[in-house]
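Board notes (copied after class):
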Amino acid sequence: MRKPWRIAAVAAFCVTVLAGTLVGEKVLALNEETRESLKAYTELVTLAHEQYGTEVEYKDLVFASIEGMLRTLDPHTSFLPPTAYRRMREKQQESFYGLGILVGARNGRLTVITPIEGTPASKLGIQAGDVIDTIEGEPTETMSVDEAVEKLKGPKGTDVNITIVRRGMAEPLPLTVTRAEIPQTTVRHAYMLTPDTGYIWVTDFARGTGAEVGQAIERLRAQGMKRLLFDLRNNGGGLLDQAIDVADYFLEDGSLIVETRGRTRDSFAEYGDTGSHRALDLPVVVLVNQGTASAAEIVSGAIQDHDMGLIVGTPTWGKGLVQTVYNLPYGAGLALTTARYYTPAGRLIQRDYSSFYDYYTYVPELSDDEEIQDTPGEGGEPATPPTDEPVFYTDLGRKVYGGGGITPDVVVDGGDLSPYSQFLISRNAHFDFAVDYVRRHVIGPDLAAEWRPGDEVLAEFREWLVAEELSTDEEVAEGLAEPDAVEDALMRVRSEVFNALWGQDASHRVRAERDSQIQRDLELFERAQDLLARRHALEESDGNQVAAGAAAAGSGT
């Protein structure tokens, strides 16, 4: 293996040094300085491998040196070792083969958050709160969530042996689950938030996102949707073609969606609305936050620049670097920055990264409910707060701001939780109590959807916290002294009970009632309606001008 890894080291170094000249499979001829650098590098790797105090693999040296080299470029150019590269490709697919459960780490244990209806896990009776204790006899306590998920996945029709630990059961329960195809959905929730308000939350942009959004829109239209709350919070992005497909549902035919600009000629490109989907033509509020990035910023930026929806929340992350993924030897990959994304108005999405520390510790400084832009006031100029950022203009002439990321039309913060509420969440107290409560009270799906926990449940929750040694009596009394803390605790218990009984959509509906951003959004649809009306007026005016011009040309004037 020594010689192949020397070759891999040279190849990796070439890819990094010549990143700007990589076109297809061609690499420009090496100059003398580069050849000397390559020679020094390979000698260093060889020396470290042969003379270091303990044994070290060529692979580890090469991978570590690649990561060090790439840090000199930008925050998002990254080397993907085989395992990470495989996971990235799997995440972008529409489905995989597995059990059909959402899992997470709860108190250091691999825990089922919810089984997906109709999958092998749900058919075997796996429940929310079940701890997966072993996979093929191997304890999960030392596994990361990603490592455990890798072991649970496998070829279609194959079996995986697990044992689960469930509250109230004296012994672990062994199960053999046959893997089946599991849809990898990116539309996490889609339901009617109010009788006329549809809600869609997209978590990322993978292979089937465009189709999922289209299906969700049609389903909600059939249920009476007259306006849409489109949630892109904490959506880290994904595939460009899916971002374009999703934007296609909101924009008029021919509208520019995003532009790329880079060093090479083929890095300059414009991507527009293809007319593949009928424009939604409803009042739209798009919810964003600091976790909204990349493809999600492309969609929200296009909607804002074309005045097809109101952007609400907090400023987005500002990730506007085009990543082209190259295959490397041994199953690895390189996500290399080859261009930058610009919104239709010409705003660069990428935030400044001259300081990596500042880039990753950035916190937007905008006051809550601040209106960044509004309808024209006196003199026809939009009423805006002072800013040092470059100014651009939407189709309707509203000011929008550059400087990286998408600045919302209205800034609404997510609100802060009390320290005790944060403590309970970090200990998964509401989730564990709800699972225990459902089991002890033998509650089933016939529970009324209007059920709300009251004083009796609160008293039981207080006792449970002490019995589980999560808090003392004094800490519980102090932590739940304020009415808001009590309301938050009972809401989270209700949400987790509904999750255990009916799944995540039911759980999310409950959380939405105390989600300050969602509740504020519901108050802003009048502005979104006004924006849509002004957009229609602009299109009608443009159409009249075109018709008048054609008539004038026909009459010979």
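Comment from the instructor: The radius of gyration is 27 Å. The longest strand covers residues 333-342.
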